[in-house]
# Entry
Amino acid sequence: MWLPVPADLTLLPNDVHVWRIDLDVPEPQLQNLLETLSSDEITRANRFYFPEHRRRFIAGRGSLRSILGGYLGIEPQQVKFDYQPRGKPVLAPHLSNSGIAFNLSHSQGLALCAVNYQRPIGVDLECIHAMSDIETLAQRFFLPREYDVVRSLCGHQQQEIFFRYWTCKEAYLKATGEGLAQLEQIEVVLNITEPAKLQTVDDWSLFELTPTENYLAAIVVAGSDCSLQCWQYSAF
Ligand SMILES: CC(C)(COP(=O)(O)OP(=O)(O)OC[C@H]1O[C@@H](n2cnc3c(N)ncnc32)[C@H](O)[C@@H]1OP(=O)(O)O)[C@@H](O)C(=O)NCCC(=O)NCCS
# Structure
């Protein structure tokens, strides 16, 4: 499913490209990626307390720059970002007429970058892990119907369903740029055997992915008739 990138990669209007990025890259590659970052990104990287978090931030931002630079036909360091009021990065005005829309999510050593043409897009990636307070979190952040589904399950099935709800909701809120504040306002309908659907909003497409073992992801993109292609990013 995660294909090496073809030399003649093109993004058609209905395409959604999803890039899987390994964040734990060897030191020489990390240095190359670091050199492409802007001064504010380097400042942000240096604020991380744990070196592992700093390295992963650099790998994520550097890879994002490299991927976007590929679509734009410019060098990674020439990619400029603007930020929406709640922090969603978008291309700076002089690059935004390209129509390239993107979003990034990271969890532990993995990131996903979703790219498409002109449509608002959001991605969320989570590493599935045991949590003692799953039901409390579901009660607090999910709708009553969703909470009932989580409560009806146990063990690994409960974890998986919880993270499916979470990634679908967060991917939608990241597509709109609103962030986690509105988590309970978006209804997701799913069960163990069927793919998730967004219930309360019209004209958005939702895709669920399993990027690798123990990870779950969701992509939400405005409109319908999208075709998803998944690429494995390899750092230069
Ligand atoms: C954005 C948010 C959903 C990220 O959640 P998360 O699970 O911690 O992180 P993810 O890995 O999924 O996504 C992080 C990436 O999403 C992007 N991002 C940041 N803010 C975003 C937003 N509001 N919407 C969409 N994407 C956003 C960035 O690329 C970020 O990567 P970076 O940290 O390397 O810069 C969460 O931090 C949030 O709710 N932010 C809103 C904060 C807010 O409302 N602030 C008010 C300021 S006025």
Q: What stands out?
A: The mean pLDDT is 94. Residues 57, 60-61, 85-89, 103-106, 122, 124, 170, 174, 177, 179-181 surround coenzyme A (CB under 6 Å). Residues 20 and 129 are 20 Å apart (CA to CA).
